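Fold this complex.
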Amino acid sequence: MNFWFAVIRQTGRNLRQTWATQLITCLTVSLSVLIFSFFYLIYLNMLSVGDKLSDNLHLVVYLEDEPGPEMQEQLRLKITQFDQVEKIRFISKEEAFNRFAQQLGDNREILADMPTDFLPASIEVVPLKTLRSLRHVKLFSEYLATLPGSQKVQYGQQWVERFYSFTQLLSIIVLLSGSLLILTATFMVASTIRLTIFGRQEELELLKLVGATNSYIRTPFLLEGLLQGLAGALLGLSALYTLFQWTTHHISGAGFFNLLTFTFFPFTIISIIIALSIVLCTVGSYASMQKFLRV
Amino acid sequence: MNRQAAPPDEATSSSGTAMIEIIKVTKSYPPNVTALADISITIASGEMFFLIGKSGAGKTTLLKLLCNMEKPSNGLIEIAGMNIHQVTGNKLAKLRQRVGMAYQDFRLLTNRTVAENIAISMEVSYKKPHIIHDRVRNLLAQLQLEDKHDILTGDLSRGEQQRVALARAVANSPTLILVDEPTGNLDAASTEQVMDLLTRCNHSGATVVIVTHDEAIYRHTSHRIMKLHDGKIASLTRGTGSEQPLAADALNATDLADKSGDMP
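Structure:
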């Protein structure tokens, strides 16, 4: 019989003897993992939605008059003076009318009596992908408003601002639930191990007297912490996956959500969450052992 | 060095090495209680040794010092050449695996079965499961406890618990066996089984130290008997019984020169 066989058997014995406490700890850890990963999953999906939205982000500068070719060149120069852009496109009044008519589709008859130049000319500016923070877009729009002949600048301010503050709030919730995970995983496991140590004081004393090495006595406690972390993370993530599957199944077909594609964590993130849970629980177990296990 | 007893011939002739060296050992407890005073004795490898005396004479204290449950206030204790109170960590664990101790209060895990209790001392030295299983069965048979294999030790009688504690002490085939009052709760038949087991262990090379005040078990012995009184060696004699130790030489007269008044 080697060391690991003996230690694993000892761990199994401990778990069997204190299964009720172990189960409660495991459920607490899994609940913390669930809460944290739930918000983290929403956050990640919102970030990807944000990415998709910012792919379509462009600023529209409505002009008082339609610029001639020379004016267009001057405006282009003025815009690129502020910053590099991905694309600048001038839209004439007629082009704007045609685009609107196309958007109306079957209802385009309502435009029949309208003159083709009733919509203002505009410039569509697509900023560089790397420079799309909310602050930057705001500054850019303020600059564009100062261009000669500029009437109004639009980029869906309200919507973009709300979306960014929502993701900001989500990131705070993720941080908070992450802290909750750290606290529960570490302290719950530490407290369970402490109870186990107190409950088995007599046995630990005897093991020491019959010649058990420190590692023989300590390793099962570390393994218990490790298993708590692993089981808690697996349980929490499985619950989240079930919830995710159920939700995506039930909301498919609903108009707005159909536009978005929700994805579950990639394998790397799953591994990181499991590893984090294992490390936290093992640290909790180790801390408790250092404090209460006198061998 | 003022030893009260030098290594006897029995020891030197059986293996030539000392298993236990106790040199001028004193143990005091606060505020002012001296449990052991200036004890010196050498017990050889393969020797069977009886430690007797009234309650409170210091027998159990000496045994606790020998198994490193307590540290002496003064003096030196060596087991197999190692100062046990300076050995730590894995070395101490290895040393303890070679020492089997049956405690007066048994120290059994009452929520575990008899077999599990006996197996503990072998598990810590990573014995193979089938070896543990066979050894447990064998020991239970020797102590006529075969039917108690799967019984929780908490459900046993005191006498049965005592025998299980002894079985655990000898299970790992230690080179030194320390037993504290092994027959305190036993009837004559069980006492004989216990002494048979200890004698067999001794014959297979183990040093056995038996603490007892049960005269019946040392009355007919031919081994050395040390009597403690108020923490001091009151006498060190060789039993006059017919049973012969492994190398039964006459007791070295110099051993007991200063104790001649106590010789039987």
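Chain B has two domains: 9-98+176-262, 107-173.
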